Amino acid sequence: DCVPVPVCFFQQSRSFSISNISEGYRNEKIKYRFNSSGGRVRRINNPYPPEIPVTTGSVMERLGAMGFPTETFTLEKVMMPKTGGRDWRGRRITRRAGGDPQHYGMVELIRECNSDGTTRDMRIVALEYDNFRSANTAIVVYGDEKRRIIGTTSMKVGEIIRNHCFYNRIVLEPQPGDCYYVGNLAPGTTVCQINLTPDRPQITSTAAGNKATVVRNDGHNVIIRLSSKQDIQIDSKCRAVIGQVSNEQWGNLEWGTAGFGRRMGHRPRSGLFQLKGGWAGRKIHPPRDVNVYHTDGSKSQSPRIQTFKKSSKTKTKDKTKNK
Amino acid sequence: MMALRLMMLHFRRDAVQGLLENTRIRSSRNWSLPGKRCLSTSTPKYCLSLLDNEPEKNYEFIVKQMIDKRQELELEVLESGVLEGEPKLDVVDDDQLCYKPEITPIVRHNEPLFQYRNSTVLWEGPSQGLHLTKSMIIDYNLPDVILQRRGEFEMPVQDAMVRKSIVQTSLAENELEHVPEHSRIDNLISNIIRLTNTLNRWLPELSNRGIIDHIPTQTRWFRDGKLIEAVGSLGKLITCKNQLPPIINDKSLILSSSLYKFPTFYPASSTVDLQRVYEYNINELSSTGLHTNYRYPAAHTHFISSYPRIESNVEVPLTPILFNRALFAAFSSAMCRAQQRLPIDTRILESPIVTQAIATDGRLFHFLVFQLNSLDLDSTEDGVRNMVWWLPDQVLYEGCTYGDSEPIGYNPEVFQTIVSMLINGVHRKDK
User: Could you read off the pLDDT of B125-141 as tens digits, one per residue?
Assistant: First the structure.
């Protein structure tokens, strides 16, 4: 019968060729089906999708398919051209896709301690710009290895950073740039680069200028408020970096021209001078429930914490007066 | 495969492919065979034997027929006597003619080997290279042995020839063309070496030297429990018959160098920027790149160029890069020659080995003299240190443009120091 289809990467790029598309698919007719609302929709036939995700999936999976070494860490950068919203077949799947090609450099998203359990001291060697993300990165050296990490606002060249791993102790003056367990932090500390479970990488609040605050620490569970004013509950063994993510002025930049937006990947739209309905505008709703991330990987919700305030109706007892 | 080819002549291709994939044969009308105009899904009887996993029967019969015919032909040739008159040739194996180097199998180790190449860039600078070679800078100037001989010999029209070579190498024929960097530097070095050949009338021993380029060296030494290797062609090398005399031969001064303390790179180690290799052979000894019976085995000076300039994540200026290249070149040439003669654990050499190096950018010249005092470099606290004399940033000329026939800001002292370094170890016979 049919032969498995080879993978097609980056049809729009000049370095790769377009001949990887299957011959059998070209001869097939375009099939349509009717939607539930009665409209006609094109049916996507992909009987042999690639085993490796091309557009969706993590960056490391895509790089492994290209031949880039993923087991070992390298500071080299790889150019990753954009697909324009096109799939391995060459057909458009997502609208409003595009932008300049990006250069991906491997970043260490899990800041671990030494295998002995001792603190890991690292020294900053350079601060550099990363085209793949809005935050700036830093090159770090420890032992015989060099790594790249997401930088914070307080980082400077020559500074020493530490990754701590101790339990059952709360730190009142944590050093900015260091990495602690979330259970070691007192409420009120600013935090970034959090992982939702101890097994996952530290991905949340890694964009430029993001920061989160520790609201409550129960010893086993910790509640954190993100920059989007959303609360999450995570295990105390999750890790977090103290400080605010670098390049905090990213949100205040003015793009100025339409070409800058095209380079970022924004396609033209015509929504400014058109009337809107009830869906537009600011809405005031009660805050959502807290998302709980369990160590199993499951997710649940719990009601939001109530903060009791003093009111004029309550009376306070004067204990100083003798009965 | 013969059986399948026979079947494909009688049956359709689909049926044969179905047999290959162990699928059911499609029912079809077979128009190729006469007399059989009916649907058939089963195979005829005369082909069943082919499908019973006994295809070799017919094949063997065919092959036997072919062998019998070949034997008949050979008997005819032997009986006719054609081959008797031809002479017999000696059998020559290809193995005897070809050169086969001894190939040793490469083994994979758990502990890596740290490799220094011409393309490595040490981010910390000269202090990192000094830590790896266990050496210390004694003075930011050349030793007196070399400085005293500056200006001893002056060739006629010396400065004019050097200025001419600068213009020749740095400028192209047209203003539109651009001279590549590697040729600009290599040609300037070769012109300077050629100018020193005029000294042979006063110093005939200068002719007993060899100039080698792209020499593959390999030296290994232990440092803090780690195996380090310097590999590659570390510049152009001038060799001579006898080694250079040591600059500091006083044992009290050499032993006092053990008090020098190295700086630390905490939390990093000095081997951060080196390439890690896990497949290597421990039994391989250090090699100079020359065969044993070479006429001029001793190393005299290295000439190092700034090309190729390598980019790194950290912006490192050019002078520390050239310092490390010059240091590792001088160190490796001295170390590999000492390891061939002496045991590995010698703490102090009775006659320390001296090598020199000159690094250039085409405009700036840097001079280095290295003295090897010990082979035991494993510990940092104990032991004798090696010695380095380093003279950086000597400007030969400030600028050279197409409008000027001569370079601007020419400094004649630089060429005098080059000559004094090349003369080191050689004296007049009259004196």
Answer: 999 999 999 999 999 99
